[in-house]
Model the fold of this input.
Amino acid sequence: MFETRIQRNSGGVVPRISQQPGFSLLEIMVVIVIMGLLIAVVAPNVLQNQDRAMVEKARADISVLEQALDMYKLDNHVYPTTNQGLQALIKRPDTGKQPKNYRSDGYIKRLPEDPWGTPYVYIQPGEHGPFDLYSTGADGEEGGEGLARDIVNWQE
Done:
């Protein structure tokens, strides 16, 4: 912004224009370029860490579900069937063989979804053990590579 100030001289009144302090367009552009470079360097690292965190959360969820399934088996001598599914860990199953020693408050409070918003897949009996429990990964489909790879209970 420019401001007109009147300064008195011996010869009369002379208008004087003074500048208010501020940033020039060049200074603003330099800051924007520096911020862009920082984002270009930092963003891929942050996003990569988020992807790793989602995979680790899926592994942790699978571990918790495995422990709950093992507790179910300890109490009832069998795992829930595929038809009863993981819901049997929350609510006493209505179908199939009825568990005789089912805990009144269930085995977990709520059934988690994988970090990508897809339900975990539970198959009993499993091909790789007493049961197979897995997430279909970022793509929501079986198989895949990278982030789309399935996260399973039978591999580390």
Summary: The longest strand covers residues 2-9. The longest helix spans residues 25-76. The mean pLDDT is 85.
